[in-house]
Amino acid sequence: MLGVGQVPVQELWDKSLRELAVASIVAALEDAGQPAVEALYVGNMLGGELTGQAHLGALVADFAGLAGIEALRVEAAGASGGLAFRLGYLAVASGVHDIVLVTGVEKMTERLDPEVTAALALAHDGDFEMFPGATPAALAAMIMQRYIHEYGVARGDFAIFPLTSHQNAVHNPYAMYRKALTREFYDKAEMTAAPLNILDCSPTCDGAASVVLAPAQVARDLGRPVVRVSGSGVATDTIAVHDRADPLWLAAAARSAALAYQQAGKDPAEIDFFELYDDFSITAALALEACGFAARGQGVRFAHEAGIGLDGRLPICTMGGLKGRGNPDGATGVYQIVDVVNQLRGTAGANQLDCRVGMAQAIGGSGATVVTHILEVEK
Amino acid sequence: MLGVGQVPVQELWDKSLRELAVASIVAALEDAGQPAVEALYVGNMLGGELTGQAHLGALVADFAGLAGIEALRVEAAGASGGLAFRLGYLAVASGVHDIVLVTGVEKMTERLDPEVTAALALAHDGDFEMFPGATPAALAAMIMQRYIHEYGVARGDFAIFPLTSHQNAVHNPYAMYRKALTREFYDKAEMTAAPLNILDCSPTCDGAASVVLAPAQVARDLGRPVVRVSGSGVATDTIAVHDRADPLWLAAAARSAALAYQQAGKDPAEIDFFELYDDFSITAALALEACGFAARGQGVRFAHEAGIGLDGRLPICTMGGLKGRGNPDGATGVYQIVDVVNQLRGTAGANQLDCRVGMAQAIGGSGATVVTHILEVEK
Q1: What total number of domains does chain B contain?
Q2: Contact (CB<8Å) A239/B74
Q3: Contacts of residue A69 in chain B, CB cutoff 8 Å?
Q4: Which residues from B are below 8 Å from A126, CB to CB?
Q5: For residue B379, pLDDT beyond 90
Q6: Is A145 part of a structural domain of the chain?
Q7: Which residues of B touch A95 (CB under 8 A)?
Q8: pLDDT grade, residue A113 (50/70/90)?
Q9: How high is the pLDDT of residue A37?
Q10: Tell me, what CATH number does A282's domain have?
C-alpha cells in the first residue's frame, strides 16, 4: 500500500458521485507520492440506480485525469469495495500492473426512501426474497430473532456493537456519527423491524475512499512503511437466506476467512484487530463466529467477555465501522482497508493501536458474497 | 478455452435473467466436460436497472449450483462481457485459479422504451451528454455525420456493415436476425437519427453466453483443441465524445489493440478474422481504422475494397456480429469470444473459416472502455 485517501462520510448533497471519487483519488495519490497509475478498479453498487451513471471505471479515470488506463467497475453489493481491492491486489501481485488505484464510491442520498431501500434490496434475491416483501432490514431482523431464540441472548446485549462503533467514531474525522451512544439511548431506540432497532442498522450515506497499491519493493525503496496484503479470499453462499441449512452460519465468511488465514499462514489468535462488517449488529456477532474468534452462538458473549473496544482482546471497527463511520455501500470495503492501513502504519490518531496484523471483511447481501483480507506491516 | 455455451439471442419474454445465465453455463460446462469450477466472473450492465437484480456474481453462482466459489460481476457498459473474460483469463494465467467460468448476460426486454434507451444511456456521461439530451444513437449519428463530412464517404456506403453481419447471421442458429438484407432495403430504412438509419443500429435483446477457461495443459491432456489467449488489452478514453481531440479516432480501441498485438507478438496482417463491435455501422468503420486494418478515414473503403465477408481479406462479425446476432449489452463481449473459439476449433458450421488467429473487441459507451483479445489455436 503506497497511499490511502478518503472523504468524510456524510449526506453530501452538494457533491456528485464523480466529485467524491476524484476527491478520494487526489488524496490517495498525494499520500502515495504521485506515482504513475496503470489501472483503476472501482467498487460501486448503485451508481446506475441512484445517480443515473454506470460505466464508472472509464468515467472516474477520465475525471481523475487518468483517461487511457485500464479501468473497470466491480459490483457485488456490499462486498463491491472489497472485491475491487482484491482485483487490485491480484493485478499487482501477479505482475500485470505495478501501480494500481482502487476506489470505492457510493452516492445514496440523491434519492429518498423507499427508492433507496428498493435499490439496496437489489443485493438480495429479487424473485424469492424481495418480491414477496422482505427488505434487507427485515431479513436481518429475522436472523437476529432466530439468534436470540437459539442461543438465549438478550436483545439488549447486542448494544455492545453500536456502542463500540460509535465510541470509536468520535475521534475519526471521516466518520458520520462522531458521538458516543449510551446503553439507555439504545434501549429506547425506535424499532426498524423488531428485534432490530434503528441503532442496530448502519446509515445510508455518501462517501468515497481510495488506495494505491504497488509491489512492496516500491514502498521499501521510497522509505515508506511497508503494509502488505498477506491473505485474500472470496467466497459465496446461496443468495437467499431461506436456502441455507443454518441461517445463523455465515458460510461464505467462514470460507473466505479460511482462505485468507491459509494464505497468510495465520490463525485467528494472531489477528490484532478486525474491521468487520457491522451493517447490522447481528452481522457483527455472526462474523466473529464465522471467522473463528468465537464459538457458534458465542459472538455476543465474546464481545462482552473478551472485549471488542480499543483495549479489548479483539478491537473491531476501530475507526467507527459501518455503524459509526457510515456505510456508503460499494465504498465501504475500501474504507475498511484504509482503516487497516492507517492502524498498521501508525496514522490512526487518537484510536491508534499497537498492532502488526489487521483483517478486513466486506459482505454483500445477507452473506452471499464475502471478501476477507489480512494485511501486515513490516516492522 | 475448455468449453463454450450460448443461448439463442432473442426477445426472450418467458425467461428470467438467471435462467438465461444458467442455460449458457450448463451448455459451456457440458462442452468442457464438467470440470470443477473455482471462480465465476459475470459481465452484465443493466441487471439492477432493467430486471431488479444486482449482485449477479453470487446469484448466478448459486442458481448454477456453484454457491461457495469466488464470484463477482464486472460492468463497463458494452465492454462488460469482454472485461469479465479478461478477469477470467488473468485469474488462470496468473495461477490464482485453474478452472474459471466467464458468463455474460443481459435481459433488456423486460422494459420498454424510453426506459431501455435511458438505461443504455448510463454508459455515457450522464451530466454532460445525457442530461442535455443526447441518446446513444444521437451520439453515433453525430460521429457518422462528421465522418461523412471529413472523408467524403456516401451514407449508403455504410450499408456494407449491416449487410455483411446479416448475411453471416443466416447460418448462426443463435442469431436473432437470420435473414439477409439487400442494399435496397437498407436505402429505404427508417432514420433513427440522421444519417443513422435503423439498420445501422444493433437491436435491444436478451442473451447469455459462457466460456470455461483452464490452463492450456488441461486441454492438451484431455486431447481437446487448444485455443489459447495470446493477447489481452484494455484501455479507456474520455467518457464524453466532446472531450476528445478527434471524435473520429477511437483512441482506446487503438491502445487496447496495440497492447494485445504486443503481447501476442502479432501485427494486423496476421489476424485471420476480427469479431468487431458493430453496435452502430460507424463504430465498425472506426474500429477497422483504430486497430490498424485501414488508414484513418479509410475504414468504409477498406470494407468495400479488401472485403469483410467470409471470403474477404478480413472477415468480420463472422457469426452475425452485434447487428445480425443481436447485442445483449453486457453479454455481447462473451458471445464474441464464443464466436472466435468456434471458428478456431472448427465448430463454426456453415460459416467456418480456414483460420488460426482471431481477434475480438468489445466497446463500452462511445469508445470510453475498449477491451481486445487475440486468440490462437495450436495446430
Answers
A1: 1
A2: no
A3: 235-236
A4: 51-53
A5: no
A6: no
A7: 94
A8: confident
A9: 98
A10: 3.40.47.10
Q: For residue A356, what are the domain limits?
A: 3-114+201-377
Average pLDDT (A243-261) is 98
Q: Does B197 touch chain A (CB under 8 A)?
A: no
Write out residues 235-264 of B within 8 Å (CB-CB) of A: 235-240, 243, 251-252, 255
User: What is the mean predicted confidence (pLDDT) over B295-317?
Assistant: 98
ipTM: 0.97
B72 to A58: CB separation less than 8 angstroms, yes or no: no
- Report the pLDDT value the prediction gives residue A319, as an integer from 0 to 100: 98
Measure B281 CA to nearest chain A CA, in Å: 22
pLDDT one-digit tens code per residue, B151-175: 999 999 999 999 999 999 999 999 9
- Global pTM reads 0.98
Residue B326 lies in a domain: yes
pLDDT at residue B84, as a whole number: 98
Per CB-CB distance under 8 Å, the chain B contacts of A45 are 54
CA-based torsion, A144, A150, A155, A156: positive or negative: negative
Across the range A6-19, mean pLDDT stands at 96
